[in-house]
Amino acid sequence: MTLINTRIKQIQIAEKIFSVLNENLDDLWKVSRMVVGNLNHFEQMLLIAILSKLDKFHDSIYLINIDSAGSLDIGYKRLN
Q1: Continuous H helices in 1-80
Q2: What is the distance of C-alpha 62 from the center of its chain?
Q3: How far is CA 42 from CA 1, 46, 47, 49, in A?
Q4: Which residues of the chain have a pLDDT value below 70?
Q5: How many CB atoms lie within 10 A of CB 71?
Q6: Cα gap 71→73, rounded to integer Å
Q7: In the prediction, which pLDDT does 3 show?
Q8: How many angstroms separate the CA atoms of 62 and 59, rounded?
Q9: Counting C-beta atoms within 10 Å of the first and last residue's C-beta, which end of the chain has fewer, N or C?
Q10: String of b and e for 24-63 (b: at least 16 CB within 10 Å)?
Q11: Integer-rounded Cα radius of gyration of the chain
């Protein structure tokens, strides 16, 4: 059985959209900087590691493809 993560979507960006993104790149960098706030480099790396660990945990439940009521029980069991 092949499991496919349906949350991931591949997109194509038209040339006009690409130029709009380029024009707003400075703002995008500002937003990305605000996301990490005043965390230093070590804290940023730690945040990435923690979020990655949580993502793997949630993926393992999501990929089972069960209803939300069942996923609560399975997720809770995996914590112990």
Answers
A1: 15-23, 25-36, 41-62, 68-79
A2: 13
A3: 39, 6, 9, 11
A4: 1-3, 5, 65, 68
A5: 15
A6: 5
A7: 67
A8: 5
A9: N
A10: eeeeeeeeeeeeeeeeeeeeeeeeeeeeeeeeeeeeebbe
A11: 18
pLDDT at 6 (0 to 100): 72
Residue type, 73: D
Dist CA 41 CA 61 (whole Å): 31
User: What's the confidence (pLDDT) of residue 2?
Assistant: 61
- Please state, in angstroms and rounded to a whole number, the distance separating the CA atoms of residues 71 and 51: 20
**Count of other CB atoms within 10 angstroms of residue 66:** 13
What is the per-residue pLDDT for 47? 95
The pLDDT assigned to 43 comes to: 96
Residue count of the chain: 80
Reported pTM = 0.57
